[in-house]
Amino acid sequence: MPTWVEIVFRSLGALAILFLMTRILGKKQISQLTFFEYVLGITLGELAGFISTDIEGHYFYGLTALFVWFIVPFGLEFLTLKSRKLRHWFEGRGRVVIKEGKVLEDNLKKERLTADELLEQLRGKNVFNVADVEFAVMETNGELSVLLRKEKQPITPSHMGQKVVNEVEPQIVIMDGKYIDEPLATLGLSRGWLNAELEKIGVTVENVFLAQVDAYQQLWVDLFDDKLKVPAPQGKALLIATLKKSQADLELFAAATRNEEAKKMYENNSRELADVISKLTPMLQS
């Protein structure tokens, strides 16, 4: 067998085994690495490269080493799930580096972190003033978790006493100029509805790169031709405007009628509609 063919087969075998091992070890291996996982990843890669190209070495010996470096971490990972002490020993633990707006220099030294590196990490969290930080913790994966003081935290609807609804995932209904029927059915819509919406903005399905429909049945479209502009969805704004117009009409009817009973009915309906509008406005303006 030619040498290059042998290297191809050895490489494919090592690649398949390495991919299988990575899948078994889990996605954590490619996202948030601890020190141990970092060393493990480098070693597995080195071993895979060794058994792929070292044709003088016995292929089985290389695979044996690869499996040892897989089985031991896999077993340790299982044990750390059961034991908090082992987890801290192998993975470490988070360390507070800022508390109540004050930098803890001793903890910085333990983390081998300079003031410049700390400030760089804070800027990565959009924090430019150390005094704004209530707590900052250096996590085991090297990421800095930051909690701002309450007065420096962004305002949310809950701070203003507003209720919001849970957002439903928007559905892709057109991709690469082709209909996707399953998401349409999930939203309770049809191709006829979609074609009618496309006609409103003067677009054909063949010209659409992506089309997305949200929970309010608003259609967002991205065209193949980026020079063409498409109107932004107006469904929410139109609904608010329609409700406000209906309320104004009820108030007008109440003022115009001479029948006291009808007047009270219009006024009551107007107040109820105003209450509905006040509850829906935060949802429809998001």
In a few lines, what is going on in this structure?
Helices cover 53% and strands 13% of the residues. The chain is of the alpha+beta class.
Strand content: 5-15%
Biggest sheet details:
4 strands, antiparallel
How many discrete structural domains?
A: 4
Uncertain runs: 27-31
Radius of gyration (Å):
31 Å
How are the strands of the largest sheet arranged?
A: 2-1-3-4
Arithmetic mean pLDDT: 79
The count of strands amounts to 8
Distance between the termini: 66 Å
How does the helix and strand content classify structurally? Answer: alpha+beta
Note the overall shape.
flat
Pattern of helices and strands: HHHHEEHHEEEEHHEEHH
Fraction of residues in H or I helices = 40-55%
SSE topology sketch:
Elements: H1 3-25, H2 35-53, H3 59-82, H4 84-91, E1 95-99, E2 102-103, H5 105-110, H6 115-124, E3 133-138, E4 144-148, E5 171-175, E6 178-179, H7 181-186, H8 191-200, E7 208-213, E8 219-223, H9 235-256, H10 260-284
Antiparallel strand pairs: 1-2, 1-3, 3-4, 5-6, 5-7, 7-8
